């Protein structure tokens, strides 16, 4: 990879128009919108889109109205415009997938037509893995496309090997067996994304991801929310596969940057007073616990986690979503008042960056993994399903910046894991490793860093294509 940042191509008016279409889940909206802001800052006109229901929540939280010219950001502009899909609030995951499969393609084609009629024709479409039809719609419209993979390069490799018959995973009851793939550590079946296992209950979701892998060569670019220094082994190994996948282009970590935080994609409103409460705590004293926007614990698991946090002897900030709060033990909130703060949602990037935060008890979703890594905060890993299983393996055993709660979930296991991460004999080493990864992450996205170069090279290519120059599809691969 070259060491010098490429010289930016001067963007003349009108700027090329990039249209990003995103699955309506918080874990997809966050990285996709953050990538949109990186592209806009480099001089493009960028439209971010998702379903009408999710769009209404985003506009309510961000204060940026849908439609119109959007708002200036860096050298470019970012705007919001959503699918006319009449979704309503489709809460069941399988129902949402069916809705998107039927209404998504025509609604997206219509959105592209609206851009042409408004005098801002789309130069490139960027989709993500739960919307495999986005690439097809762009292809039918004669528009080049890209895909943003919102999980790790390691998980990409696991899916790719599976789709192309390059790996056979062990039986689910054979916990001692190991599978070895190029560029990855030896993995047990418990480390494999659960969507690839026979017991996976989310069949429609898995099917959509696998469809993306079967058609991914239709995309001209495959971005990934990671950075070269973090996953260089797997990125280097992928071109040697047969058939080889398109080159992965690391553009992460796609975490919130202070200068672009005014345009956010929060679909839930963060609780007031969180940062003020953290300000009143001692440095590196608070246990932050959040299992994301999808994971749901049983009442028994929630109670064990509640009592484990309370008995840790440390102040804690715990995100318990409204759909789970009724399962809290009776009288719990009163019993922890003053030393524990329980909120329905938090500004996670600000919490992790706060000096009072000591560790992060996390489900190990890839967004949370990158956010804690960028902030330099050790973890207590509690994965549930999907790619979380693989991410936990990397956080604990490869990145060496945390511990794992032993199964089954019991209050004493929670207490022991928290103590090991904050005050145990290996706690300082884990904290040092976390700080080192934080420095590497910040370097990658800073001007001239590896991910910044990849973003700039893509923008340069889109500008060159829009001006009639011949773009070289392999340009970004060389940058890696």
Automatic annotation (TrEMBL):
Q: Which GO terms describe its molecular function?
A: quercetin 3-O-glucosyltransferase activity; quercetin 7-O-glucosyltransferase activity
Q: Which Pfam families match?
A: UDPGT
What keywords would UniProt list here? Answer: Glycosyltransferase, Transferase
Spell out the CDD domains in the cross-references.
GT1_Gtf-like
UniProt xrefs under InterPro entries? UDP_glucos_trans, UDP_glycos_trans_CS
Q: EC annotation?
A: 2.4.1.-
UniProt lists the family membership as follows:
Belongs to the UDP-glycosyltransferase family.
Name of the molecule in the record: Glycosyltransferase
Native species of this protein? Answer: Lolium multiflorum
């Amino acid at each position: 990879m070259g060491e010098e940042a490429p010289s930016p191509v001067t963007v003349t008016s009108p700027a090329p128009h990039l249209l990003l279409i995103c699955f309506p889940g918080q874990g997809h909206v966050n990285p996709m919108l953050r990538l949109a802001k990186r592209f806009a800052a480099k001089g493009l006109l960028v439209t971010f889109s998702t379903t009408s229901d999710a769009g209404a929540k985003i506009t309510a939280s961000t204060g940026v109205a849908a439609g119109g010219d959007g708002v200036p950001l860096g050298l470019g502009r970012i705007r919001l415009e959503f699918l006319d899909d009449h979704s309503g609030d489709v809460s069941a995951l399988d129902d949402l997938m069916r809705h998107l499969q039927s209404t998504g393609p025509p609604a997206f084609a219509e959105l592209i037509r609206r851009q042409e009629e408004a005098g801002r024709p789309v130069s490139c479409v960027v989709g993500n893995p739960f919307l495999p039809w986005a690439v097809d719609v762009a292809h039918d419209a004669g528009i080049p496309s890209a895909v943003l993979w919102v999980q790790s390069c390691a998980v990409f490799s696991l899916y790719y090997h599976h789709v192309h018959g390059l790996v056979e995973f062990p039986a689910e009851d054979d916990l001692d067996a190991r599978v070895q793939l190029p560029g990855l550590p030896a993995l047990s079946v418990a480390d494999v994304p659960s969507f690839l296992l026979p017991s996976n209950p989310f069949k429609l979701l898995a099917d959509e991801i696998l469809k993306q892998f079967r058609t991914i060569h239709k995309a001209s670019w495959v971005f990934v929310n990671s950075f070269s220094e973090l996953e260089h082994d797997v990125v280097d190994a992928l071109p040697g596969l047969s058939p080889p996948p398109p080159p992965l282009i690391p553009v992460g970590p796609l975490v919130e940057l202070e200068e672009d935080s005014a345009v956010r994609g929060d679909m839930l409103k963060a609780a007031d007073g969180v940062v003020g409460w953290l300000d009143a705590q001692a440095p590196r004293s608070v246990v932050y616990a959040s299992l994301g926007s999808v994971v749901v614990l049983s009442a028994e698991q929630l109670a064990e986690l509640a009592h484990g946090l309370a008995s840790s002897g440390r102040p804690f900030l715990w995100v318990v979503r409204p759909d789970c709060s009724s399962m809290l033990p009776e009288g719990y909130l009163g019993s922890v008042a003053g030393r524990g703060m329980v909120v329905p949602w938090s500004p996670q990037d600000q919490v992790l960056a706060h000096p009072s935060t000591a560790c992060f008890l996390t489900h190990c979703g890839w967004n949370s993994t990158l956010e804690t890594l960028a902030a330099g905060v050790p973890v207590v890993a509690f994965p549930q399903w999907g790619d979380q299983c693989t991410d936990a393996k990397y956080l604990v055993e490869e990145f060496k910046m945390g511990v794992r709660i032993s199964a089954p979930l019991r209050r004493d296991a929670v207490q022991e894991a928290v103590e090991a991460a904050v005050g145990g004999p290996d706690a300082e080493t884990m904290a040092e490793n976390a700080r080192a990864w934080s420095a590497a992450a910040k370097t990658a996205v800073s001007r001239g860093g590896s991910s910044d170069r990849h973003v700039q090279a893509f923008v340069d290519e889109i500008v060159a294509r829009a001006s009639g120059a011949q773009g070289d599809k392999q340009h970004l691969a060389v940058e890696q």
